[in-house]
């Protein structure tokens, strides 16, 4: 991993600069996000990876804390899938011991709120059906830093200052929850939500409801939710929710329950704190409550991943990723003048489905000097990224195009 | 990796058995390919991974030799992409030192047979365009074992006894070769082939033409060939051809030149041995020659990946992968009675394009006893897998459905 990391850093993440020297071009160029963006990113990058993800590639990641690890912008590729070696990490509670992976097919999940409730093993789930879906897995707070940079006076938004790297696109395989429910006689009673409970060991001395990872999503998702045991062609690692994870396509990360131990069809949302007051949309300084919108569906979003540095005058390929949350992304525009004018970019590569992201490219001739690069996506329902997202107290669901704009110095 | 490997083996590769015990079901069932198939696979599995791929997952691989490493059938997942940790390896010459990855963007490739021939760096290639394509990467000899098992008398087919694991499906990003050719003034003269040369260091004391990895493919592929620097979201590893690999979508592995150092548009095929006499379709015991068909386009193929063992009486999901080589795979049929009757399976997951494989599933109720499971794919042009492939001296391009059929004992 170490060697591979060094190679990644020198050849890929900072490749342009290396090339400029190697090819005998002029002075290396450099890029940065708007000045204030730089400061916080640097120090955390020095932190070592925690033991449970020691197998990840440190050169591609920014370690904010043991439970919050971000993919570097330059490590997001264009070949659509995000390798687990560089996929972001965000946990609300410490992961269980990896001994839970010793017998993956023996992992048990309780299915409740159905006419014939029972506990099923993963091996039994594998007999009930198979579905494979590509989804953008993204922390609800991805882009929070762009909100925090705009705070004034006594305003405060706590939480990890993610920029764009608390997101990835991965392919899951598992059983459709709908097939499981049907095998158990169908929903029992007035099911209005799908409530999943994680298998984390809860810290002692705290009220379980205050720390348990239990989320409810609308029953309408029964058509797309899967209980997954595989990610990107391999059994799901502990760090990403193995042996079994509840995937809610199009919904932000927190709704995709790791090491899921209970899935219930319920009439009410869970009253666990993580649902009742956390991950709610409210004003800065306000408290969260069940009356506020929950952080569920992801809005349309995009960002540029190259060039970050090493750009030289002449033809450049501006590339990035775009997704529409619950809807397919239908269009991406790119600006090289800070949003004054826009040109439509082209999608490249296969379409992995409406819940996945797509890579985009726009060839542009850039003269020497400073350029502000931005991307703006539109989804199949006509939703367009705004210039600025409306600020909210939790710093959730950022999708403005101005925040992740890049200022690039072209040599 | 070691820990993850153990988890894979116990929980995934042999998961069914683990489950049978964990869930208190009856005696564990077992599966095997037709008896003769077992023998050769076991011993090589014990060999350690060579240093240049020490980072791969040993529990998912069969090491035939340092240059021929096969993915275990049970390690082929349904989430479409094959992780580099378990992707097969086949080299004709030792890989170059990994120092060639120290400056990926500085890697130079000579482009010849164009009006303005030039040597370009990877950084310069990145400025010329971007394409992303999912392809089945498969050794020309994948399935050779099924030919070898049918040899009679003094017949001999040398080469690695691959079953189904010398193949994977990966997503590449790079520059379209067509864009590179156009940037250099277009083809010079009567170009009939695209000839790529690998960057391996040739062993001393041998005639270069006898060992150099240099292959020619028809110029018609100029519309789809890419020079790739990324695989599955990461810079291409040395083992899989980084920093730059020539990808010929739909063509067998040998045509996808690793560490490509020269790409030439040529009027004639190269006279290198690997093209002139190796990888040719000819009878058993005959010598290869340029007059014989070259091993280029991959034929339609499929195989079942589960259940391999642990199957129990009742509902089972029979799953596998299928692909059409140059054409999209349009249909997969599954038989549970050794080919006497067939039922159409359903494709699952996104369609990654005509050069990729698709996962398929068929739910079946299997009574206790022995069952012979087989799959048979049809491509968009109506080509159907035959029961047996016509035997050839090199053991190339196997695509019969009988060979990879599985005999499963259901408890």
UniProtKB/TrEMBL annotation, chains A, B:
Cofactor(s) annotated in UniProt: Mo-molybdopterin
Any one GO MF annotation of this record: sulfite oxidase activity
Domain Oxidoreductase molybdopterin-binding: 102-272
Keywords from the named record: Metal-binding, Molybdenum, Oxidoreductase
Annotated PROSITE patterns: TAT
Domain Moybdenum cofactor oxidoreductase dimerisation: 295-401
GO biological process: sulfur compound metabolic process
Official protein name in the record: Sulfite oxidase
Organism: Methylobacterium oxalidis
Phylogenetic placement of the source organism: Bacteria, Pseudomonadati, Pseudomonadota, Alphaproteobacteria, Hyphomicrobiales
């Amino acid at each position: 991993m170490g060697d591979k990391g060094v190679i990644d850093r020198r050849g890929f993440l900072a490749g342009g600069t290396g090339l400029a020297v190697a090819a005998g071009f002029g002075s290396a160029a450099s890029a940065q996000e708007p000045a204030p963006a730089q400061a916080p990113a640097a120090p955390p990058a020095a932190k070592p990876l925690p033991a449970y993800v020691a197998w990840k590639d440190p050169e591609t990641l920014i370690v904010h804390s043991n439970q919050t690890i971000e993919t570097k912008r330059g490590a997001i590729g264009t070949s659509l899938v995000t390798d687990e070696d560089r996929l972001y990490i965000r946990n609300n509670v410490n992961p269980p011991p990896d001994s839970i992976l010793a017998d993956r097919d023996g992992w048990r999940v309780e299915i409740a709120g159905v006419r014939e409730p029972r506990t099923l093993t993963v091996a039994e789930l594998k007999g009930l059906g198979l579905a494979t879906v590509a989804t953008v897995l993204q922390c609800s707070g991805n882009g929070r830093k762009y909100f925090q940079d705009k705070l004034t006076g006594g305003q405060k938004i706590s939480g990890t200052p993610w920029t764009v790297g608390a997101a990835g696109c991965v392919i899951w395989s598992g059983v459709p929850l709908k097939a499981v429910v049907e095998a158990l006689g169908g929903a029992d009673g007035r099911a209005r939500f799908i409530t999943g409970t994680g298998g984390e060991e809860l810290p002692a001395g705290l009220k379980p409801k205050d720390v348990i990872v239990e989320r409810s999503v609308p029953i309408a998702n029964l058509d797309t939710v899967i209980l997954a045991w595989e990610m990107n062609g391999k059994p799901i690692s502990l760090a990403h929710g193995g042996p079994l994870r509840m995937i809610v396509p199009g919904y932000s990360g927190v709704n995709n329950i790791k090491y899921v131990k209970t899935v219930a069809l319920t009439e009410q949302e869970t009253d666990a704190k993580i649902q009742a007051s956390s991950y709610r949309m409210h004003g800065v300084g306000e408290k969260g409550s069940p009356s506020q919108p929950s952080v569920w569906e992801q809005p349309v979003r995009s960002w540029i991943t190259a060039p970050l540095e090493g750009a030289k005058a002449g033809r450049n390929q501006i590339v990035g990723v775009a997704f529409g949350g619950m809807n397919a992304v239908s269009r991406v525009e790119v600006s090289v003048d800070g949003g004054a004018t826009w040109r439509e970019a082209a999608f490249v590569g296969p379409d992995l489905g409406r819940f996945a992201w797509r890579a985009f490219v726009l060839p542009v001739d850039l003269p020497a000097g400073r350029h502000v690069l931005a991307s703006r996506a539109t989804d199949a329902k006509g939703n367009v990224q705004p210039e600025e997202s409306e600020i909210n107290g939790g710093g959730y669901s950022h999708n403005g195009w101005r925040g992740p704009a890049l200022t690039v110095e072209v040599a």
